[in-house]
Amino acid sequence: MIDAVDAEAEAAVQGLVTPRALVIVVDDRTVAGEVPDRLGPLVVELLEEADFHVDATTAVSGDEVEIRNAINTAVIGGVDLVVSVGGVGVGARDVTPEAAEPLLDRRLRGIEEAIRSSGLSAGSADAGLSRGVAGISGQTVVVNLSSSRAAVRDGMATLIPLAHHVIAAISEF
């Protein structure tokens, strides 16, 4: 039986390196320690089930500069996928799309719309009405999801096969 190290080495030889991800939770109350992070671990679990290696989960407040810095740090760190959760609604502190958009070299509007459409179909109004963006920053796919369990579960189910495809396409360059 091949152990995990041998399997990873074999995958690297074949060009099938495990993609790396980082999860950003945008929530003032989590950062303040008022509530535990319940969505970050869910995103990590779903990513790991989809054969991603999750480098870290970080929580930031609903501040445009903090969100942008967290995304930019992940991009500079060379992760393949950044999934942010929260801050995509219409409230005063919902500024995740405004923080992410200037960092994107290319928008992936099809992913944005697929996540919204599948959210509405599944009865998740917050996912369907999300202002979240998706795109490519350098060699990193960046996606914003709404902050409910239903939105995360449905959004990740929609995102994961698309993310694998985009990551494979942009890593060919």
Task: Characterise the protein shown here.
This is Molybdopterin-binding protein. Keywords: Molybdenum cofactor biosynthesis. The protein is of the alpha/beta class. 47% of the residues lie in helices and 18% in strands. It has helices at 4-13, 28-31, 39-49, 64-76, 96-100, 109-121, 125-128, 149-170; strands at 20-26, 53-60, 81-85, 106-107, 134-137, 140-145. Strands 2-1-3-6-5-4 form a six-stranded mixed sheet, sandwiched between helices. A hairpin with a 2-residue loop joins strand 5 (134-137) and strand 6 (140-145). The longest helix is centred in the last third of the chain and has 22 residues, at 149-170. The N and C termini lie far apart (34 Å). The relative contact order is 0.16.
SSE topology:
Layout: H1 4-13, E1 20-26, H2 28-31, H3 39-49, E2 53-60, H4 64-76, E3 81-85, H5 96-100, E4 106-107, H6 109-121, H7 125-128, E5 134-137, E6 140-145, H8 149-170
Parallel strand pairs: 1-2, 1-3, 3-6
Antiparallel strand pairs: 4-5, 5-6
Helix pairs in contact: 3-8, 6-8
Notable traits:
alpha/beta; MoaB/Mog_dom; 173 residues; six-stranded mixed beta sheet; globular
Mean pLDDT: 91
Could you give the order of the helices and strands?
Answer: HEHHEHEHEHHEEH
E-strand count: 6
Record the strand order, biggest sheet: 2-1-3-6-5-4
Distance between the termini: 34 Å
Structural class: alpha/beta
Q: Into which percentage range does the β-strand content fall?
A: 15-25%
Work out the helicity level: 40-55%
Which descriptor suits the 3D outline? globular
Largest sheet: 6 strands, mixed
- Gyration radius from CA atoms, angstroms: 16 Å
Number of helices: 8
Residue ranges: pLDDT <50 for 5 or more in a row? 1-14
